[in-house]
Amino acid sequence: MEVLTHSPRETQKLGEKISADLKLGDILALYGELGSGKTTFIQGLARGLGIKKRVISPTFVFIRQYPVAGHRSPVTFYHVDLYRINEVTEAKGLGLEEIFADPGAIVVIEWADRIKEIFT
Ligand SMILES: Nc1ncnc2c1ncn2[C@@H]1O[C@H](COP(=O)(O)OP(=O)(O)OP(=O)(O)O)[C@@H](O)[C@H]1O
Ligand SMILES: [Mg+2]
After folding, report:
1. What pLDDT, in 10s, does the model give residues 43-81?
2. How far is CA 117 from CA 62, 82, 88, 91, 107, in A?
3. Which residues surround ligand 2, an ion (CB under 5 A)?
4. CATH architecture of structural domain 8-113
């Protein structure tokens, strides 16, 4: 499926729509050139999940986490940004293994291509 959006608002709306299909344990791997709309899309995902806090680019932080309300057990939305990671070895120590193993996690990764070896 291919979807083309024409404005930031549309990109957010797409994220919001797709959030309805997310299940616990899902990991969304986003890739695309600088400024292609990854964070904007994630803002839509977060809104769709009912997260009120503003989602900002975690470029200098690598990982930001947001509690998702309305579940019996704790659910966390993790926003990972690997822009500053050049290769998979540099991602060690970020705690990604723990996040991927969290049964209450929904994870979205910007610049997932930086660690594509992990997914193949
Ligand atoms: N479909 C669109 N058309 C035009 N502009 C858009 C569209 N989607 C998002 N934008 C705008 O593009 C800019 C970059 O978007 P965003 O920060 O989401 O990209 P990014 O892929 O996360 O960038 P980075 O690689 O730096 O993390 C923002 O100003 C955003 O509002
Ligand atoms: Mg971004």
Report:
1. 999 999 999 999 998 667 899 999 999 999 999 999 999
2. 18, 14, 7, 11, 17
3. 38-39, 57
4. 3-Layer(aba) Sandwich (3.40)
